[in-house]
Amino acid sequence: MGWALMGSNMLAWFRPCPKHWATDGSKRMGHSWSLGEHGRVICGAFVLKETGEKNIQGFGHVDPRFWITLICLPALFCHGTKVPRNINMERLRNGYLFSEICRRELEHTQKYPHAKLIKLGIGDTTEPIPDIITSAMAEHAHALSTIRGYRGYGAEQGNMELRNAIAQTFYRDMGIKANEVFVSDGAQCDISRIQMLLGSNVTVAVQDPSFPAYMDSSVIIGQSGNFKEETGKYENILYMNCGPESNFFPDLSNTPRTDIIFLCSPNNPTGHAASRQQLEQLVEFAKANGSIIIHDSAYAAYITDESPRSIFEIPGGREVAIEISSFSKFAGFTGVRLGWTVVPEELLYSNGFPVIKDYNRIVCTCFNGASSIAQAGGLACLSSDGYLAMNAVLDYYKENAKIIMDTFTSLGLKVHGGKNAPYMWVHFPGLRSWDVFNEILEKTHIITVPGTGFGPGGEGYIRVSAFGQRESVIEASRRLKNLLK
Amino acid sequence: MSSSPSISSSSSSFLGQTHFDSRTPNARLPTKDSWICKCVATPPTETTAHMTKVSRNANMAKLQAGYLFPEIARRRSAHMLKYPDAQVISLGIGDTTEPIPEVITSGMAKKANALSTLEGYSGYGAEQGENRLRAAIASTYYGDLSIEESDIFVSDGAKSDISRLQVMFGSNVTMAVQDPSYPAYVDSSVILGQTGQFQKDVEKYGNIEYMKCNPENGFFPDLSTVSRTDIIFFCSPNNPTGNAATREQLTRLVQFAKDNGSILVYDSAYAMYISDDSPRSIFEIPGAKEVAIEVSSFSKYAGFTGVRLGWTVVPKELLYSDGFPVAKDFNRIVCTTFNGASNISQAGGLACLSPEGLEAMHKVVGFYQENTNIIMETFTSLGFSVYGGKNAPYVWVHFPGQSSWDVFSEILEKTHVVTTPGSGFGPAGDGFIRVSAFGHRGNVLEACKRFKQLYK
Fold it and tell me: Which residues form a coiled coil (chain A) (predicted)?
């Protein structure tokens, strides 16, 4: 926006026309202007080079004053509201990480239309969903066309049968009851619902590196304060460094108290599954500090050793933790959309009010339940046959992970994760992760994710995901060996 | 305050049954007042309950009671326990009852089955929705209105979208709602911290501008008495009054928003129920693209209340005070706090918008419109002042001088018909009952028979 001379002595102010905002936030050059509806100008150039050069094609030699007049005209016709933009939205950095990766992928495919791009970036499942599960969903869809089978609104908390099945399958012997399970359309949505629940006046700790949604949702809801360029961190968020020196777990002895602690285990992006001892320490820490742990266990099904699959395996976990999980990565439901959150009745605010009551209110007010069809699929997933079928798909991805791990290891690179999660966290000491990302993409046409996308603690690392068709994974390994040998 | 139910050492009974599924007749229900927690959970005898040191979100504490519709469901369940042999008829919650046309469900079944194949499997979809569906929505509903595919954001429904919009707007905006109105606008505003405390004497939250809509003003607010707010929520055809705003009224509303630099959030979830030439979209009004966001839903058109699919239109022309396009922030919200509507539901949406699907949806809507006529005629014949119904599946019946919860209770007790008390939608709703027209024809006819008996 700015002031410009209009005509001879009149000053006018102009603002960018919405059609000229480029997707990356930069201003685009207009090219011509035309009369829109009702004779209003709807397109117009507004960027003026300081040298005064004419940079618009087709106008030839134009008197600068005339040109400024043309530029100012659109501004008079673009109504802006007087509604202030949410300052929290302003605090967000660039685009959401995975949308940014998509964008770069698109650019790359445009640049190399014939290259066979292999996507080991966004953790998107690739293998078909077992028949037993999809046929249950198809059956439910058909039933909606019958009088007997039609269902309207479901309970916002989810279908009771499914809540029971989740409690029985994942939380048997942990004292978690069906009414503490809230079925949802996925972990990403639940994270934001939890943030709405908590409000802006709580302090938050996240792992560094971590899944961006914890941080971004924290910024959006107003917990984070401003981003500091010099540190690469938000001023009010506590970043708990998780690197190899601390065994990819926060060093709790050096961690100040916050109200909320986000912990993802098995971890996205590092792949580390916290040990029982680590989680016991965390629960103890949370108890002593009166904090609430938000435990993201979306990858628990990938655990191959004795690491705990739920925070509620830890005694005392029910009094300090909320657990989020998802069908996305173990049932291939990334597009179908189904997950759940457990809020134990024992979890209380400082005034004794049960968190579950407020969470229930959020779910009833801000949500209308997961799709009944997805829930029918979820129930089929948790049948004994469904569960077996899903485990076969999991094994497939686990085998992919092994191949990728072996590849990087054979190249002499330090690889973390992979054993208990579908992510490999590969160390490129001394290098910048976006540079490594770019080089890998440019030279091998493989999409990965640069570690800094997950926080400053991710610098020097690349995340490689194990989702993909076997042939692609093998081909990717071949290309990486060629590049990095 | 009356006493809470006794609290046993099992903490689950403190909450009662937290699933308010109206289909479970054996739910044990807490009384209305037990919603208000007045004490700490009774500790089990062996150990003291651990309390975290995390403060409860003060905004949650401002909310007065449970969300309206679970409360209705609760009362219905309690009634069914009391009268286990009564045939309870639900004309309360606006829940669709008729099966979804096969052309639509087979589209969804096909997609589900395709997910088991290599060629047909798809993982994450675009958070904004599948391009084909966005394009179909744009061309079906906004064809001549210059709304483009990229202005459409597909979602899991209007209720979720309302909250996402609120999260986007943040706590530092002021808002106006119609009085009465769909409770999600006010409740989400409270949760996001836009409001002050609830004022019991006037039954309103501080800092919200309530725009009264009653028979005297033809259910359209007198804009000359409305103070400026940043955001204005407007629903037309209206839930609960059933009133559809005229072109002239909406033109004035758009002008009002323009003059005040406000953003109009226009809820058009019932547009297909319009039977006259009232506008179906705010974007039919010139200039609306610079002031309005439109929210809509497949719920009441396609019976998708359980399937979950809707959309929000954010025109590129809509700008914040600093010139920043609102659509960019909404896109960021959608990418960060959401992961797209279910791909199966979206396949259903696409089938809905095929020529066959559109025709099928019109038939189902027609069925509910016929229900509405029956209900309207019943109450009119009984001498009541009846509003709405013509352009919406809701009938707004006036019971002057009576408390709407009392009327609700009396109707429930004496006819076993569930309705919705008007005050649940705001103080100006008191004295009214909302009767929804969703139901099997037999049930609607039976309900009307019982109303006639009660009020003859």
Answer: none
